[in-house]
Amino acid sequence: EQYLKRCMECLLEQKEFLTEIILIDDGSTDSSSKICLDYSRKYANVIYLRQPNAGPGAARERGLRIASGKYICFVDSDDIVDINVIGKMVNYAEETKADIVSANIAYLDETDSEMLETVSRLRIKPYEIYEVKKHPELIYLLRLFLWGKIYKKSLLINANVTQPNHFYEDTSVLPCIFSTAETVFHVDEVVYKYYRGRVGNTTGNYFRLQDLYLSMTEVMEYFHVNGKFEQYKLSLKILLNSQIRFLYRKLEKGLESQQIGQAYAQDLLEKMYQLMVDNFGSWLDTAKGKITVA
Question: pTM for the full model?
């Protein structure tokens, strides 16, 4: 509610190529529904749908089903898209025939005034077309956020991946989507501003880490079932390794702040270690017994 109007005004400024804005109200309990309804009544290209709370995955799936555009861009309601950048990214997509066009993002703090970090430290060259089959490392090099990119709608449909209704859902689906794409193009410009550090339930955030395990389990299952595992085996191993290290750092902070217990942290890490062993036989570069949570 607090940021929705600003987000909508940014989207309405996308004069070029933005044919429709689909607002999925996932069971909001504040005045968001009224705000969305007002915009849909005022603008012909704004479509408003309300559903019982089912999570962001279900909301995106519903929006994708009714979208009429050639390209899809996902935007969270509290974030900002710079003016006319969607049109710019569509131009890049049309010129390069890329299935996915990604761009840099910026992190902003909760005061809305300070840019904390620009995500541009990707180990790929901007403004070059990458064939995914020749560069399987793209499934972990590009940031695992659905936002900050545009996709051909046909790609999202052909990927045949169901967006899960749990946290870390982007981590679950993006490697699968990348593996279905033929080409990817990265733009070395900040086009999406993501707000982090909102005041909220930090304890809940630590317990949501178990969903990271679910996401990585879903990724491995997708690649096995679709016959892509061997082709992407090394990249998947590196991806899982990076997620285990991310998990380890988060759990350490939770233990230090005493918001989670040792048993929870150890059990979750053990599950992730076992996922590594089950799929790859061993750790990437460190013996399992040398990494503990204390």
Answer: 0.89
